Amino acid sequence: MDTNRILLLLAVVLPLLAAPVIALAGRSLGRRVGWFAFAFPVVSVAVLLLLAARMGLPGSLVIEWPWIPSLGINFSFLLDGLSLFFALIVSGVGVLVFFYANFYLDDHHEHHGRFYCYLTLFMAAMLGTVLANNLMLLFVFWELTGLASFLLIGFLHHEEKSRVGARQALLLTGFTGLLLLAGVIMVWQVTGTYDLATLLGSGLPLAEHKDWLTVAMLLMLLGAFGKSAQFPLHFWLPNAMAAPTPVSAYLHSATMVKLGVFLCARVFPLFVENELWAPVLAAVAFSTMLFGAVLALWSHDLKAILAYSTVSQLGYLIGYYGLGPLQGVEYDFLHILNHVFYKGCLFMVAGIVIHATGVQDIRQLGGLRRRMPWLAGICLVAAATMAGFPGTTGFLSKETMLKEIFEAMNGHGALGAYATACVVLTSLVKVAFSFRFFANLFLGDETEAVKAHFHAPPLAVQLPPLLLAGAALLLGVWPGLLAAPFHWLTVEGLHQPTPPLSLWHGVTRELLVSVAVVLLGFGVFILGQRTAWRWAAIPRALRFDDFFERGLELFSKFTKWLTRFLRADKPVDYLPVIIAFMLSVVGGFMVLALRPVLGELATRWEWNMLAPHPLRSFVAALISLAVIGVLLLRRWTTQLILLSVAGFLTTFYYVLYRAPDLALTQILIEVVTLFLILILLGRFPRSAELGEIVHRPSPLRKKLNVVLSLGVGVLMTTFILWFNAAPHENRLGRFFAENTVELAQGSNTVNTILVDFRGFDTLGEITVLLIAMLGGIGLLMRYKRTAAEYREGPLGQPGMGIQHSEEKLK
Amino acid sequence: MNGPRSYIFNSMVRLAVFLVNVFALYLLLRGHNAPGGGFIAGLATAISLILLSLALGVQEMHRLLRFDPVLLAAGGLLTAIVTGLLPLLVGKPFLEHFNFHLHDVPLLGEVHVGTPLLFDVGVYLVVVGVTCKMIFVFAKSTQGLRALVAEEERRYSSPVEQPIEADVPRAEAEVGNQGKEKTHAD
Predict the structure, then answer these.
(1) Smallest Cβ distance to A778: which of B33, B94, B156?
(2) A330 and A234 in a common domain
(3) Which of A661, A675, A755 sits opposite B35 (nearest CB)?
(4) In sequence order, what are the residues at sequence separation of 6 or more whose Cβ sits closer than 8 angstroms to the Cβ of residue A39?
(5) CB contact under 8 A, A788 and B177
(6) Which residue in chain B has the smallest CA separation from A753?
(7) Could you tell me if A348 and A359 are in contact, meaning their C-beta atoms sit under 8 angstroms apart?
(8) Which of B134, B162, B170 to probe the A interface (max A CBs under 10 A)?
(9) A800 to chain B: nearest residue by CA?
(10) d(CA A295, CA A200)
(11) What is the domain range of residue A430?
(12) Of A349, A114, A154, A116, the residue nearest A241 (C-alpha)
C-alpha cells in the first residue's frame, strides 16, 4: 500500500474506528478522555496537510478500495482543492472545538466518553463526506453526519427541548438526505457511474436527458437545502442549539450545515448550465438570507441570534453558487473561511458567557468587559468581522460580495436585482445585531443576573476563539497571505482565476454602499437600544418548528385513530376478514388458473388418485379427532392440549416424508408454545373463561362462519389435489441437495442451507428475534399502565399492572 | 411458584434437565452432517430451563443463572456476526465458511469441524436466550411477581418514560411522577 493510502486511512478511518474506543475509555478515564480524543483531529490535520503537500496542488488525486464493485460502489476518495479545503476546515475547527470542549464540559457533565465518541464519529463522517469520490459513499457519510448530529443534539436527553430538537433535525436532514439519494440514483441511471471524478471529467449528458437530470438536480438541491437549513426547512437549526455549545460551534455553524454549500460546490460544474440552477438557488437562498437575518435581529437568546445569523449566512453561500458565472466562481473559499472564523468564534464566546453567568438571554446580560477583558476583545473582533468592518476578513468578504452581486445584476436581470436588494438589506440588519451582540454583552452596567452567578472561566478556554479572531484580523489586514493557498486550492470547472485581494480598493461603489449600510445598521441598533428591543419578537406565524411539531402530533393522532378504527376487541373478529380475503384473492386466482387445465385434468383423472393410504389416513383421522375435541370441549386448558396433540401428530407426516429436522423442530416448537400459552392463560381470571362461554355469536354470524370454514376446506383440498395431479420439478431443492457436500461440506442439507447457503438470512432472522424480544419487553413494561402505576416508578406493581378481578374483589 | 410442590416432579426434572441438555449438545455438534443444529438444540435447552423453572419457581432462576438470558442472546448474535466477519481478515467475503477435517483425534477418530459450528452456536445462544427470557417474564407476571428485577428495569426502561395510552393525560402522569397523590386509580 503506498503512502498516500495510509495517510488517507489515518485521516478518515482512524477516527471512525477510534469512536467506540473513546466511548469505552470514557468509563475509566472520565473527564480526561477528552484529551485522548483531542489527538484524533490533530492527527487528521497533520495528515491532511502532509497529503496536500505530497500530491502537488492544484490538481486532484483519486484513492480507491473496492467495496461492491459489481454495483459501482467503492470506497473511493477524491482529493482536490475543494475537498481538501473542506476537510482542513473540518479537522482544523475540530482541533479547536475538542480543545474548547475539554474546558467547557467540566465535572458537572456526565458521560464524557459518549460525548467525545459522538464528536469523533461526526468528524470522521464529515471528512468522509467531503472527501468521497463515489456519490453513494458520499450519501452514506452524509447520513452518518446527520446521525451523529442527532446524537449530539440529544446529548442532554433528559431535557425535553433536546429531544424535540434532535428529532426535528433527524427527521428533516434524514428525509432530505433520502431525496439526495434519489437524485444520486437518477444521475447513475443516465450515466452509469457514481464516480465523481469521472462525472466531473466527462460532464452529464444534459442534451439527451434534460428533464430527467433537472429532476435529479432538484432532488439533490433539496438534500442540500435540508442540511444547510434553507427556508422553509430552516427551523431545525435554531432548535439544534439545545446541544452543548461546543457542538453548536462545531456542527451547527462551522461544519455540518456547510455540507449543503459543499454539495452545491461539488455539483456546480455538472449542473450550472441547467436553466433552473440559478433561479432555484438564488430565489431560495437569498430569501433565506434576508429571513434569517431578520429573525436573528428579533431573537433574544444568545445562541438563537447566532443560529439565525448562521441560517442567513448559509443562504448567502448557497446563493453565491447560484449566481456564479458559468466559467466559475471567484471568492467562495473566502466567504466560507470568513464565516468559519467569526461564527465559530462567536459561538465559543457565547458558550463561555453562558458557562460563566448561567444566563442565555441577552437582555439580562451586560457589563462583562470588566470581568472578562480578553473575551471582550475577542468578541469585538468577531462581531466586527460579522458586521464587515475594515481590517477584518468580514470586510474583504463583504466588498467582494457586493462587487459580485452588482455584476450579477447585469447578467441575471430581475433575479440579480432581487439578490442585490436582499444582500444590502441583510448587511444592514447584520450590522445592527453585531453591534447588539457585542454591546449588550460587554458594555453598559453589570446586571443583577451577572452579579448573582458569575464565576470566572479558565484562561485556556479563551484560546480557541482567540485564535479564530486573530486569524480573522490577521488575514483581514494582510489579505495577500490568502493568495497562495487559494491558488493551490483552485478546482477546475468550479473556479476562475481571481484578481488578488487587497484591503483598499479606492473609493468605489461598493465602499460607499458599505459605509451607508454600516451607518443605517448603527441607526437600527440605536433605535433598538432606545426602545429596549421591546418590539423584537418572532411572530407566531413564522414559528415553523411549532407547525412541524403540530403536524407530527396530528400524524400520530391520525395513526392512533386509524389503529383504533381497524381494531377489533376480540382477536376472533379478525378471522372472517382474513379468511374472506384469502378466499377471494387466492381462490379467485386459482379458479382463473384452473379453468383452462380443468378439461385436461378431467381426461387424466383416475379415482385411485384419491385412494386412501392406510397409515396417513389413520393419522389424519386422529388429527381430526383432536380438532373436533377442541370444538366440543369448553375448558381453555383442555382445548389447548388438544390443539397441541394435533400439532404433535403432524410430526408424523414429516417422518413419513423423511424430514427428521422438521420433525424435531415441530416437536420442540410445539412444547415451547404449549408452555407459553399455558403460562399466558394464567393471566386470565376464571371469569374471563366463563364470560367467553356466555358470549354466543348471532345466527347470521354463525352461518357466515360455516360458509367461510367450508370455503377454506374446499380451497385447500383443491390445492392439494391440483399439486398432486401435476407434480412440478423442485429444482432449487435439488440444487441444494446435490451441492451440499461439495459447496458447504456438510451432508445435512437443511443445516447447510441455514448456516451456509442462506447464512445471511439466518443472521438477519436471529437479529430480528432479538429485536422482537426487546420490543416485546418494552411493550409489556408499558402496557396500559395507569398514572397510579407510573407513580410507583419504573419498577411498577408486581404483575406488570395486570390485576385479576377476583384478587381485587377479596 | 404458587401451588403445591411435588417431590417426584422436582426429582424427575433434575434428571430430565441433565438428559435434555446432553441431547441438545449432541444435536448441536452433529448438526452439520446429521439431523440437528443450533435452532433445535436451542429449543431443547430452553425447554429444559423452563422445566427447571417450573420445578424450582421462576424467581429462583435468576439466582441460579446469575445473568440475564438477554445477555446470552446478545452474546449469540455477537458470535454469529464475528464468525461472519472472520473471513474478511483473509480477504474472503462476509460469512464465507471454512471446514477442517482432522484425522486421528484421540477418542473421537475422524472429526469434521469448521466455522459453521461456530455460527450454529450463535444461533443456539440466541434461541435459548430469547425463549427463556420471554417465558420467564410472562411466567413471573402471571404469578403476581415483578416481571423484572431492579437491575433489569434500569436496563429496559427510562426514567423519563411516559404512558403511551392516550387515556392517561400527560399532565396527570407528570403529577404522578412527582408523587403528590397516593390514590390508586384504575
Answers:
(1) B156
(2) no
(3) A661
(4) none
(5) no
(6) B32
(7) no
(8) B134
(9) B141
(10) 38
(11) 275-536
(12) A154
Does B47 contact A at CB distance below 8 Å? yes
Q: Locate cell 402496557: which residue?
A: A783
Reported residue count of chain A is 810
Number of domains within chain A: 3
Boundary of a domain, candidates A220, A243, A270: A270
Q: Is some CB atom of chain B closer than 8 A to the CB atom of A781? A: yes
Same domain, A626 and A759: yes
Q: For B152, name the nearest residue in chain A, comparing CA atoms only.
A: A795
In a domain, A541, yes or no: no
Query: Quick one: A187 and A236 in the same domain?
Result: yes
- B162 in contact with chain A, both atoms CB, cutoff 8 A: yes
Q: Kindly state whether A743 is in contact with chain B, defined as any CB-CB distance less than 8 angstroms.
A: no
What pLDDT sits at residue A803?
A: 43
Contact B36 A782 (CB under 8 A): no
- Does the pTM surpass 0.90? The reply is no
Nine-digit cell string for A380: 469585538
Residues of A in contact with B175 (CB under 8 A): 787
Distance (Å, rounded) from C-alpha A663 to C-alpha A666?
Answer: 5
Instruction: Test B95 with A798 for CB contact under 8 angstroms.
Output: no
Find, in chain A, the residue whose alpha carbon is nearest to that of B182: A788
**What is the residue extent of each domain of chain B?**
7-153
Choose the closest CB to B185 out of A754, A766, A786. A786
**A556 lies within 8 A of chain B by CB:** no
Q: How many CB pairs under 8 A join A and B?
A: 207
Out of B46, B182, B185, the one facing A672 most closely (by C-beta) is: B46
Selection from A308, A278, A264 nearest residue A290 by Cα: A308
- A475-515 pLDDT per residue, tens: 888 887 777 778 787 887 777 777 777 777 777 777 888 88
Residues A165 and A299 in one domain: no
A422 and A450 within one domain:
yes
pLDDT at B172 over 80: no
A257 plus A288 within the same structural domain: no
Burial (CB count within 10 angstroms: exposed 0-12, middle 13-18, buried 19+), residue B73: buried
* Chain A touched by B88 (CB under 8 Å): no
Continuous H helices in A56-159: 81-104, 112-131, 135-153
Give residues 145 to 164 of A whose Cβ lies within 8 Å of B.
Answer: 157-158
The 10s digit of each residue's pLDDT in A422-480 is 888 888 888 888 888 888 888 877 777 777 777 878 888 888 888 888 888 888 888 87
Same domain for A112 and A1? yes
Residues A163, A246 share a domain: yes
Query: How many Å separate Cα A265 from the centre of its chain?
Result: 22
Domain assignment present for A314: yes
> What are the grid coordinates assigned to A428, written together?
444592514
Q: Is residue A810 part of a domain?
A: no
Which amino acid is residue A65, in one-letter code? W
Q: What is the full DSSP assignment across A406-468?
A: HHHHHHHTHHHHHHHHHHHHHHHHHHHHHHHHHHHHHSSPPPHHHHHH--PPPGGGGHHHHHH
pLDDT in tens, A277-304: 888 888 888 899 888 888 888 888 888 8
Segment 760-779 of chain A within 8 Å of chain B by CB: 760, 762-763, 766-767, 769-770, 772-774, 776-778
pLDDT at B4 over 90: no
Counting other chains too, the contacts that A706-713 makes at CB distance below 8 Å and 24 or more residues apart are A708/A575, A708/A576, A708/A579, A708/A580, A708/A583, A711/A579, A711/A583, A711/A587, A712/A579, A712/A582, A712/A583
> Which residue of B37, B46, B138 is in closest CB contact with A680?
B138
Q: Dihedral sign for Cα A358, A363, A366, A372, please.
A: positive
Q: What is d(CA A593, CA A604) in angstroms, rounded to the nearest whole number?
A: 18
Q: Is B173 in contact with A664 (Cβ distance < 8 A)?
A: no
